[in-house]
Amino acid sequence: QVEVVESGGGLVQPGGSLKLSCAAGGRDFDASVMGWYRQTPGNERELVAQMFSDGRIEYADFVKGRFTIARGNGKNTASLQMSSLKPDDTAVYYCTADIGNGPLALRVWGQGTLVVVSS
């Protein structure tokens, strides 16, 4: 069974920075995609950023130039460096790891980590 665990959430002032980390483990696999999503109360989860095993990276328009997704030092690890944070960035952030490729891929979600941007 694969488990995804996020860490690094917390309270930060507007304009500040925060780094989230993620690790997926539990069985031997290579994640085809690792991503970050976020969700606010009453809204659906939305994609923040994702990176593919072939090196492609995609960002949501609302974080371009402010957030950076990167692979960690270990297998199936990822980080999300967030800068110039705004109150609208307040959300629960979820990390995902995809097992397999294409439409049959299994997406495993973490439990989420809360980021609050407030003065």
Which regions have little confidence, pLDDT < 50, spanning 5+ residues? none
Radius of gyration: 14 Å
Order of SSEs, N→C?
EEEEEEEEEEE
| Approximate helicity band | under 10%
The overall strand count is 11
Please state the structural category. Answer: mainly beta
Q: What's the story with the biggest beta sheet?
A: 7 strands, mixed
End-to-end Cα distance: 40 Å
Describe the structure.
- The protein has 119 residues and is mostly beta strands.
- The chain has no helices and eleven strands.
Keywords, please?
7-stranded mixed β-sheet, 119 residues, globular, mainly beta
Concise overview:
The protein is an all-beta fold.
Secondary-structure map:
Blueprint: E1 3-7, E2 10-12, E3 18-25, E4 33-39, E5 46-52, E6 57-59, E7 67-71, E8 77-82, E9 91-99, E10 106-109, E11 113-117
Parallel strand pairs: 2-11
Antiparallel strand pairs: 1-3, 3-8, 4-5, 4-9, 5-6, 7-8, 9-10, 9-11
